[in-house]
């Protein structure tokens, strides 16, 4: 059905050129037509950059005002009488005016979701993050529309949230014993010094206390690195 949309816009451009003159198809009029085609497809070549930059630059303080302004921009693309009565085309313009970003895998993988959770019984809250597994509603509507060519993509991660430290380094640290640690390759393990062990050398304490402290306090913590992917949406 993408061919139908292309045909409609081509007919509009040709008829407008005849009636109004070719120079009518420059500027925002031309960009509006290009934006409609570019927003309706997962394929966005470099030629789409100017029209999409124009479209996404249209903003307002309130969301509904942004949608209205973007819709008015898209309607600058001239339409003949057939397009005006085509309900599929009309609904496409309505949907495109709500598009807040790309619906391709690369864009959706940058759509991060954060939450604040309490750690155990304490009052301390931790920020956790993941790639949002929920596709924006406008992407769902575009994918289902008769006049679009949006590739089918799927979410392949496990929807798990990660603390910010794990997210930034790209892997979780799973506590293990030293014996297991010794069996792992170097890129799959990590060791950390126990800060409590350093306190066992407190000079204000007796040598007997220091000895007991060292006997009962592990000097190191051993971990296995569990890597995870941040590329969750794939074609």
Automatic annotation (TrEMBL):
Signal peptide limits: 1-21
Keywords, sorted A to Z: Signal
A Pfam match: TrbM
Protein name (database record): Conjugal transfer protein TrbM
């Amino acid at each position: 059905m993408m061919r139908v949309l292309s045909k409609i816009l081509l007919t509009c451009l040709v008829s407008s050129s005849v009636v109004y003159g070719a120079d009518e198809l420059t500027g925002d009029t031309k960009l509006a037509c290009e934006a409609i085609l570019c927003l309706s497809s997962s394929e966005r070549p470099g030629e789409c950059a100017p029209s999409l930059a124009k479209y996404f630059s249209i903003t307002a303080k309130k969301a509904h005002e942004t949608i209205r302004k973007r819709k008015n921009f898209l309607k600058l693309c001239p339409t003949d009488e057939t397009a005006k009565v085509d309900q599929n085309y009309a609904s496409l313009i309505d949907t495109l005016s709500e598009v807040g970003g790309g619906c391709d895998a690369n864009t959706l993988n940058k759509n991060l979701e954060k939450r604040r959770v309490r750690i155990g019984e304490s009052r301390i809250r931790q920020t956790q993050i993941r790639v949002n597994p929920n596709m924006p509603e406008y992407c769902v509507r575009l994918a289902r529309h008769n006049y679009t060519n949006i590739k089918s993509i799927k979410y392949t991660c496990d929807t798990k949230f990660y603390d910010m430290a794990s997210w930034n380094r790209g892997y979780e640290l799973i506590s293990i014993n030293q014996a297991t640690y010794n069996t792992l390759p170097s890129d799959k393990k990590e060791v950390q010094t126990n800060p409590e062990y350093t306190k066992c050398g407190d000079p204000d304490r007796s040598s007997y206390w220091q000895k007991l402290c060292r006997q009962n306090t592990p000097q190191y913590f051993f971990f296995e690195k569990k890597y995870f992917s941040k590329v969750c949406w794939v074609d």
